[in-house]
Amino acid sequence: TVVGSATLAWVQQQSSFWVDVSPETLEKTYFKELKAGDKVNLERPLKLSDRLHGHCVTGHIDGVGKVVVVDKQDEFLKLTIELPQILAADIVQKGSLAVDGVSLTVNECKGNEVQVMLIPETLHKTTLGQKKEGDFVQVELDIIGKYIKKWVKA
Questions:
Q1: Which tens digit of pLDDT belongs to each residue from 98-146?
Q2: Which residue from 11, 21, 119, 124 has the highest number of Cβ atoms inside 10 Å of its Cβ?
Q3: Is the Cβ–Cβ distance between 132 and 67 less than 8 Å?
């Protein structure tokens, strides 16, 4: 998984790789903004026999949000992310949200903004601690919530 998007690495060298990115992925992500040398989160896909840490993250991005507030609190970092209203409507406080492929708990949601708290482990192992106000993030809603919404509407 590359920055939370389900892409398939098809050529891999010692310190680099190439991926195929579909038109839909380009439309729903910020990949078109990336430049050579930009750091991204990488993760091997989960095997069915693996232990689950966090919530189910598929890598199928629902949209792009914008970091509007970065608040350092001791060794923690609180991010406020502005989302398209269509995505924000389906997020619940203390629910799960994947941001750039990282499973996070939503601390608070107000209108079209959500707040997440990054713990030291997340800051150490991901690129989220490097985010600045105005940066974009890729967002994946909780897959279980999406299925429940579809089921309730049926």
A1: 999 999 999 999 999 999 999 999 999 999 999 999 999 999 999 888 8
A2: 21
A3: yes
